[in-house]
Amino acid sequence: MKKVPKKKVVFIIENDGLNTRLMADSFSKSHDFEFVYFANSASCLAALDQHPMAVVVDYDLNTMDETERDGAKILKEIKKLEHHTEVIFFSTHDNAKVATEMVKYGAYDYVVINDARFVRLEKVLNNVVDYLEAKRETFKYKVFTYSVIGAIVAWTLLTIVMFATGRWESKSGVFIEP
């Protein structure tokens, strides 16, 4: 039986109903991702225990709703609660200063809303998948490397102790009682 790969969960915080419907239509055929939509940051933050791979945040949430947090505050809260989750901002503002500031605070990327936004967003999400896979592989390599180094250090210390106590016969390389 062929194993079906698990879809990667992506949260999207968007309070513009039209944009949400456009995104849902655009991403409905995506077989790699499962999208969960939220109208505000509070409901998204409450659901972070589902450990999404990424959260896509409308940078302009607080321009339509004054009670809503601004983009930087949402980013900081997501990173505080779920630091492994990557945050991607999208906005109508093509402002390099804002984009740089969000990346400085820990955002993975900043996508400008234009005609190619959905294609760009899907590419960014695929890049997040590759990035997280590379991090996982790096972690496995580090664990293996540290394990090998630990074994070498332990063997070296054991050998030193055996020679120092006279319990090692150097000609045959076997342990002996003094």
TrEMBL record:
Keyword Transmembrane helix included in the entry's annotation: yes
Source organism, top-level taxon: Bacteria
Gene3D superfamilies: 3.40.50.2300
Keyword Hydrolase: no
Residues covered by the Response regulatory domain: 9-128
Transmembrane segments: 143-164
Annotated protein name in UniProt: Response regulator receiver domain-containing protein
Organism from which the protein derives: Flexibacter flexilis DSM 6793
